[in-house]
Amino acid sequence: MRAVLFDCDGTIADSCGLICDIMRRVFAEHGLPEPADVETRGIIGLSLDVAIGRLHPAAEPPLLAAMVEGYRRTFRESRADERFRETLFPGMKELIDRLAVREDVLLAMVTGKSRRGVAAICEAHGMETTFHAVRTADDCPSKPHPAMVEECCAEFGLDPCHALVVGDSVYDIEMAKTAGASALGVAWGTHEAAPLLASGAYAVAETVEELEALIDAWLPGDPVPSQRGQWVAAD
User: Fold this and answer.
1) Per-residue pLDDT averaged across 163-182, rounded?
2) Which one of 5, 26, 123, 150 has the fewest beta carbons within 10 angstroms of its own beta carbon?
3) Cα(149)–Cα(172) distance, integer angstroms
4) What is the CA radius of gyration of the chain?
């Protein structure tokens, strides 16, 4: 058996624009200068408290907590709008569905979203039973800590050397490499190919078709050596 662990925002879900918009609204609500989209895109993939802390390092704990709750509230309000639909990148649902019916593959989602956010997007797109394991910001420390990968692999009874993490950010790649898993980047999310490759991705897919070919090529091969790194928390 092999495991393929997908990030969500920026990999499966085309949510970067929505995240940038909500982040601007949260900062404005607190009378703070709104972050540029390029800054917000740079923190997508981190758990929410860590992400906002990166954008506003001077925030004291009470303000940080209020901004985190404000983001969650604003996102919930947006989702409650009947016109709201969190879209997926074209072709990703079909790719995941094809992997889900393979007998040699276990699927997981490893994401900085909340459990509520994962449930909402899976329900909206008919993926409630697609993933055999899910780890979120409610379950584990923020990426690039390796816990999400390690816990999914432990649930599957697999060594991380038999796992492949697919993600759009350097945090996904660093998480995978620290856990001892393989890492594959996608070029349509938050970070470009160069930093993904520099972080340890063995390849970066430019299209969903290329991503599927790279996953297919990885599945029957020998596992990578289990050489786990050491995760060091950011200051």
Assistant:
1) 97
2) 123
3) 10
4) 17
Cα–Cα distance measured from residue 176 to residue 9, given in angstroms and rounded to the nearest whole number: 17
Find the helix or strand (DSSP H, E) in which 216 lies. Answer: helix 208-218
Residue written as tokens 């020998």?
222
Where b means 16+ CB within 10 Å and e means fewer, 193-223 reads eeebbebbbebbbeebeebbebbeebeeeeb
- Closest alpha carbon to 170 in 140, 208, 200: 200
Reported as a single tens digit per residue, the pLDDT across 69-118 is 999 999 888 877 766 667 899 999 999 999 999 999 999 999 999 999 89
Kindly state the tokens that stand for 40. Answer: 């917000």
The 10s digit of each residue's pLDDT in 175-227 is 999 999 999 999 999 899 999 999 999 999 999 999 999 999 999 754 444 44
Q: Which among 80, 78, 73, 65 is positioned nearest to 15, based on CA atoms?
A: 78
12: CB partners within 8 A, 6+ apart: 6, 88, 89, 92, 93, 96, 109
Sign for the pseudo-dihedral over CA of 188, 220, 4, 176: negative
H/E element holding 3? strand 2-6
* pLDDT given for residue 70 in this prediction: 96
- Confidence (pTM): 0.83
Q: Angle 55-170-105 (CA atoms, 0-180°, nearest 5)? A: 130
**Number of alpha helices (DSSP H) and beta strands (DSSP E) in the chain:** 10, 6
Q: Which tokens is 198 given?
A: 């520099």
